[in-house]
Amino acid sequence: MTPDYFTTIESPSVAEYKDRGSKFIAYAYPLTDIADFKEKLAALKKEHPKAVHHCFAYRLGVDGLLFRVSDDGEPSGTAGKPILGQIDSKQVTNVLIIVVRYFGGTLLGVPGLINAYKSAAALSLQLTPVVQKPVLINYRLHFDHTQIHEVMKVIKQFGCVILKQETQLFCLLETGVPKNRLDEVLFRLNDLRAVEIEKL
Fold first, then answer.
1. End of a domain among 132, 154, 177?
2. CA-to-CA distance for 8 and 128, rounded, in angstroms?
3. For residue range 62-90, what is the model confidence (pLDDT) as tens digits?
4. Do 160 and 176 contact (CB within 8 A), yes or no?
């Protein structure tokens, strides 16, 4: 049974942790999908070309089953897993944390690395508000432009999210409907004449 809500972070944040000359810069981002992750990682690699490691972890989806960790050349299990551990301890999903490391000349050892990546990730999550968002179920609506006012009224009233909109003589609207209001929204839309509703 999918929950009605999920918890995530509201906005990106950056935190810095230092240990024996090494600098760990943690970037936390709200994440929408894997393409979004690839863009963010590529942008940070461009921004920090001299950094020795770009380690990361993310968790996606309301069931939280989609996740990935990377130690990016650090000893196995010293970076990605501790970062993911912080995401999980906050019980958030749709979150990406990338920790950029500049080496300071002193080896930190396995416990030192685990602590540094964990601390940097924890700090970045402390700096951004955690929010509860409704689980959305996506629908495509087709309707005549004369209906737009009525359709938009329903969309606004129930806190639906507009994903895509094309308004011409015939309108197309892709919307994310909060799962906990789904029955009401569909009832109201079905009540309007000539609105075609299709689940995405």
1. 132
2. 10
3. 888 899 999 999 999 999 999 999 999 99
4. yes
